[in-house]
Specification:
The protein is of the alpha/beta class. 48% of the residues lie in helices and 15% in strands. The protein has helices spanning 2-17, 36-43, 46-49, 67-72, 84-89, 129-134, 137-144, 160-165, 179-185, 211-216, 218-237, 239-250, 256-270, 282-291, 296-306, 320-343, and strands at 21-26, 52-57, 77-80, 94-101, 106-111, 126-128, 153-155, 172-175, 190-193, 204-210. It has a five-stranded mixed β-sheet. The chain has a three-stranded antiparallel β-sheet with strand order 8-5-9. Strands 6-7 form a two-stranded parallel sheet.
Amino acid sequence: MLFKGLIIGLCFFCSHIAAQESVTLQLKWTHQFQFAGYYMAKQKGFYNEAGLDVTIKQANPMKPDTFSPVASGEAQFGVGHSGILQQRINGQPFVAMAALLQFSPYCWMVKDTSDIFHPRDFVNKRITAVSKNDGTELLIMLKRSGVDVNKLKLYDGENPGQAWIENKLDAMQVYVTTEPYYMTQQGIAHRLVCPQRYGMDVYSDILFTSENMLKKNPQTVEKFYQASLKGWRYAMMNMDEAIAVTQQYYASGKSFYQLAFEAEVLKSYITPSTTSLGHMSIAKWRLIADLYGIQQNEFDEVKSHFIYKYQEPEKVQLSWMLMAAILVSIISIPLYLRLIFSKN
């Protein structure tokens, strides 16, 4: 009876140790192929194998803020844009883990009949108000081309997409796979003016966490990091499956064709031939700092803790299997002694 009770206790102990750790990933937008790697990490069991129970939370499209949830601890991980560096400079202890898009997916969209071909052509043009308020690489691109963005006319009405169709504004900020797709479906010819073509080579869709999370749970962060990259590698090597999973479980409102279009466009952003998946470098972050007007001494102060680097904790971490083995050994000793003495 005693032995049975010990076995039951041992099973409960082991199941408790092996219980998955719950973490939340805050996306920067609503569900779409843009986040397929995380979906595949969850659906293929990569997170589960790492001992993680991951909740993937889409953003509120009216207020797509990923920084606040991670800063407050509401989410342990987030997907953000290159502005995370400015956030770090401003005192938010964010740690950039991986850049899933090696280039910015944001562009200006203009009509095919427009006289805007290059950033310098934006002088006296009408643009969407959100673009100016964001202060992203799109505006920096214009500034570097000599355009006084303060003199640009802003459209602040509702439904900028329809306003653009009706020629109420000249250029609209778009995500390279979203608005261009809808315009193509409607037969509206257009072209894109993108930062990447003009030396604005910035990272995007940056997986990040907080310094507090990294200090308290370094192994959890590392497991999430490795499982996420595994999910992305799987998604890139199994595009059709990744598209199907995205549609079935996350973005049911989008057609397979629409998600396939997104996947095909983003593939060159995620896995360009020149670099590895999720790669980040100090050199490129330094260029990004320069583009955003961040002083080099400011960048130098934060760079050592800004880019993620896993360090094995000094404290010996026993696996649950090892701990269970130790417990079994402890339980077995008195039972063994009892057996020996009973024979005597």
